[in-house]
Amino acid sequence: LNYLNVLTELSRSLLGKMTLVQVLVGIFLYVNCLMIFTFLNKAVFREDTRYILFAQTLFVDSAVMVLTDVLMILSLYQYRIHMIPCIILCTISSTFTICTPLILVAMCLERYVAICMPLRHADISTSRNRCFGFLFIWGISSIVPLFTLIAYLVVVPSAALFTYALCSAELMLGEEWLAQTRAIIFQILFLFMIIIIVFTYIKIMIAARAASSENKKSTKKSLRTVILHAFQLFLCIVRFLTPYIEMPFWKVDFLVFHNVRFSNFIVFIIAPRCLSPLIYGLRDEKFFLFLKHNAVYGLTAFCQLYSMKGK
């Protein structure tokens, strides 16, 4: 009887946490969809590199949120899926997750060019250069996931690919050398990203001191934006360490594993991805004006539709 009571209490606890996570994910996806609609609805945003990178961040963050949430739900309910779709989902999720900090670095570089090289900004921020930049970002984002996928396919027995298992990124990190190599590549990658962000911060700070009173406000705002991106990058770096934090609990204690995973999900997945809408959706006056209009218009249209159904 005591065992059943404990099991019931654990189920309620997990259900309550899962409900909280779903509410947060729903709010996040609603805000992101509204911002993506605002971006697509105005040509002035679709022609600006800054807002194009922002829209790319919204898309990638939404995809990461959905994939991670689905994997967590499957893990919570102990639902086993086929290994082939599992490793595909994990590879795609890992690619999107790496893409986010790379876009943050690109945003910092864009601010650096806009503030420190304003006369060359228009020549650098062309559609052709943007395409090359996006190809470079997605190419770099795919290196680690493809390496992990290929290495896993080499070491795993072929029969294991046709089994069913609880889908998790830890499945592909069973070999110690693979997990360590993956971690080393991440460390090198993020070291370069940190160097670039520190470089842009120093350059923009120097430009802020030398700027005239008219440009000082814009420069200082860009400086704060780079600081916020640096904080986002820090959270993203910690996010890549979470599988290594969760792995010791994976085969030891089910409840502790899920408690750690819930905490990591909220702190290192939801929190940093809420900063992008804050940085560009609320702090940017031009974008916020259109965003507010679309939000009010959408709410008004929904109320009118609901009242018509009531009649």
From TrEMBL:
Subcellular location: Membrane
TM spans (from-to): 20-40, 52-76, 82-110, 131-164, 184-202, 223-242, 262-282
Transmembrane keyword on record: yes
Residue ranges occupied by any G-protein coupled receptors family 1 profile domain in the UniProt entry: 31-280
Principal cellular location given in the protein's record: membrane
Listed SUPFAM superfamilies: Family A G protein-coupled receptor-like
GO cellular component assignments: membrane
Keyword entries, A-Z: Membrane, Transmembrane, Transmembrane helix
One GO MF term: G protein-coupled receptor activity
Name used for this protein in its record: G-protein coupled receptors family 1 profile domain-containing protein
